[in-house]
Specification:
The chain has about 475 residues and is of the alpha/beta class. It is built from 15 helices and 20 strands. The mean pLDDT is about 95.
């Protein structure tokens, strides 16, 4: 835990008592603050009370007694309208912040030079975060990984030299961290997302920009420049005097890090050098993962990690569970768990990474279905359709893709494994990338992915991927 000492002797309201909210309560209390905990969910309030915190309906309290309102990132700050607790705080002149801001203040107080890597982007931030954490561990750092990827930031160990915090951040978390100042900040990409919480794509992009704009003096801002929003952001950072490292997987750069023919290349001052190779690294297949690897490599180099250590780290990266996770192999058939592919855009990344695919898809359908994936249909040898979306997806595939309605995952795995082996292909892939939510048959994508892994590993002759 990171005790929050910046509010010692003061009273702080915490609203939103899920994982990060309750962690904030513990960290504030450990640092000497009095905490008043609240939530619109009565069950969460009960849990906070059982943990020993004072709970109250904040509507009935005098807000001038509060030094701050610590808001959970899931609670609306601006759109579609501010939560009532935010309006109360603003009316009383009380600052509204989140757990990331509390961390930043503690780091500045106690270890301002401790390495702090912050990652955001519409897509790829979890894989990039996990990859950077892996690289820093390989390089010998005491690595603390958390934030949006899982562990609440204040539940990690405190900042100190030799210890690096590698933190994934959503736009909601950035919005609640006005003094965010990482030593290395990464913005991967910006595309339309979370407009319901930010109002416009322009505002959403502006929130993302704050992570790299806040990089501390002497730090590095790493920006993917394969979309227009990020290209403009990189240019603004340049004009502001920031140290900017551009990355691209689409075009060579005169200055920056880019991917060309499977190699990560660095260009600077007219010189060009290959710093790492991605060929043969199964956990980093596909153009999207090439961007993740380029960003992680830029971060590693900014931290002084050598190219040799970087290459070893890339090769030993196991990947994230449920995201293009290689769960087994039988002969020439590779089994890949991409249960996190819960919409067509995410599934497009997976389909683009292989050529001979036995595709398991379906679940609770989302708007648009799989019509946008038609360009990848020639890669699909056969599709195995499950769940509520099976009939809809069957209609979309029509006669263009051989398919069956398997209905359940166990039937789909059995049939896909048999057909892939019988096809006699050199590199057949049984791919679970559903393009759907899991909620018709599974509580979440993790449970669905775990079930797929168990089914695959129970097949005769399946071996781990090494």
């Amino acid at each position: 835990m990171i005790p929050v000492t910046s509010f010692a002797g003061k009273t702080v309201a915490v609203f939103g008592l899920g994982g990060s909210g309750l962690a904030s309560c513990h960290a504030l209390k450990a640092g000497g603050a009095e905490v008043i905990a609240a939530d619109d969910n009565a069950e969460n309030v009960t849990k906070a009370a059982q943990a020993g915190f004072i709970t109250a309906d904040l509507r009935n309290l005098t807000w001038t007694n509060f030094a701050a309102l610590v808001l959970a990132p899931g609670v609306p700050l601006t759109h579609p309208m501010p939560h009532w607790s935010v309006l109360k705080a603003r009316e009383a002149g009380v600052e509204v912040i989140g757990d990331i801001e509390l961390f930043c203040r503690e780091r500045r107080r106690h270890a301002p030079d401790a390495p702090f890597v912050a990652i955001t982007g519409t897509n790829g931030k979890s894989t990039t975060t996990a990859l950077i954490a892996h690289l820093t561990k390989v390089a010998g750092y005491d690595t603390q990984m958390g934030g949006n990827i899982g562990t609440a930031i204040l539940s990690l160990e405190p900042p100190r030299m030799g210890r690096v915090h590698v933190i994934e951040m959503s736009s909601y978390q950035i919005d609640l961290a006005p003094s965010l100042d990482p030593s290395v900040g990464i913005l991967l990409n910006v595309s339309e997302d979370h407009i319901d919480r930010h109002g416009t794509i322009a505002h959403y992009a502006a929130v993302k920009e704050r992570l790299v704009a806040g990089v501390q003096a002497g730090g590095t801002a790493i920006v993917g420049v394969d979309d227009g929003f990020c290209r403009d952001i990189a240019d603004r950072l340049d004009r502001a005097g920031k140290n900017v490292e551009r990355i691209s997987v689409k075009n060579p750069l005169a200055s920056g890090i880019y991917v060309e023919h499977g190699d990560i290349v660095r260009a600077s001052g007219g010189a060009r050098s290959e710093i790492a190779a991605l060929a043969g690294i199964g956990s980093l297949r596909g153009l999207h993962n090439a961007q993740n690897a380029a960003a992680a490599s830029a971060a590693a180099l900014a931290m002084g990690i050598s190219p040799d250590v970087l290459q070893n780290g890339l090769r030993s990266f196991p990947g994230l569970a449920h995201r293009m996770e290689q769960v087994g192999r039988r002969g020439n058939v590779l089994f890949v768990n991409d249960s996190k592919g819960t919409n067509a855009d995410a599934t497009a990344h997976a389909l683009s990474s292989f050529s001979d695919i036995f595709w398991i898809a379906g679940g609770k359908p989302k708007a648009g279905g799989i019509t946008g994936l038609a360009g990848f249909f020639p890669r699909i040898r056969k599709a195995y359709l499950i769940g509520e979306a099976a009939q809809e997806f069957s209609g979309t595939l029509g006669t263009r893709v051989a398919h069956e309605i398997s209905q359940t995952l166990d039937v789909a795995v059995e049939h896909a494994a048999h057909d892939a082996e019988a096809a006699g292909l050199t590199d057949a892939v049984v791919l679970l990338s559903p393009a759907c939510a899991s909620f018709d048959q599974y509580r979440n994508f993790e449970i669905r992915g775990t079930k797929f892994r168990e089914l695959v590993q129970a097949l005769p002759g399946v071996k781990p991927v090494v």
